[in-house]
Amino acid sequence: MEFIVSNLLSETGLVALLYLVLSGLYLLVLPALVYFYLKSRWYVVSSVERLFMYFLVFFFFPGMLLLSPVLNFRPQRRAI
Questions:
Q1: 75 lies in a domain?
Q2: DSSP code of 69?
Q3: Is residue 73 part of a domain?
Q4: Are 53 and 38 in contact, with CB atoms under 8 Å apart?
Q5: Average pLDDT over residues 8-37
Q6: Contacts for 71-80 with beta carbons within 8 Å, 24 or more apart?
Q7: Quick one: pLDDT at residue 69?
Q8: Are 64 and 57 within 8 A, CB to CB?
Q9: Domain for residue 80, yes or no?
Q10: Distances (CA, A) of 67 to 6, 41, 55
Q11: Dihedral of the CA atoms 11, 15, 20, 25 (nearest 10)?
Q12: pLDDT at 5 over 70
């Protein structure tokens, strides 16, 4: 146990932990926030904001691909 704690507190361990946190943020957390932002604003945006949305999708594309099989934001059926 002491070996694991001392390894995590070393410089190499901290750099590895930083890479793990940043990759999780880039691949999971921020794309999920982008998905919910797109869902809430898609039909009411201005042209400049839509350009910003396209930039976010392009920038977080790898994470969007990872999350796309589990998220479903299709429009609800209309009651006729």
A1: no
A2: T
A3: no
A4: yes
A5: 89
A6: 71/32, 71/35, 73/35, 73/38, 73/39
A7: 86
A8: yes
A9: no
A10: 35, 19, 18
A11: 130
A12: no
30-75 pLDDT per residue, tens: 999 999 999 888 889 999 999 999 999 999 999 999 998 888 777 7
Q: How many domains does the chain have?
A: 1
How far apart, in whole angstroms, are the C-alpha atoms of residue 61 and residue 70? Answer: 15
Euclidean distance between CA atoms 67 and 61, whole angstroms: 10
Handedness of CA 70, 26, 55, 39 (dihedral sign): positive
pTM: 0.75
Question: The domain containing residue 12 runs over which residues?
Answer: 2-67
- Reduced to 3 states, what is the DSSP secondary structure of residue 79? coil
Quick one: tokens of 63?
Answer: 């994470």
Residue 54 lies in a domain: yes
Cα(53)–Cα(16) distance, rounded to whole angstroms?
Answer: 31
Please state the rounded mean pLDDT for residues 11-40: 91
> By three-state DSSP, how is residue 42 classified?
coil
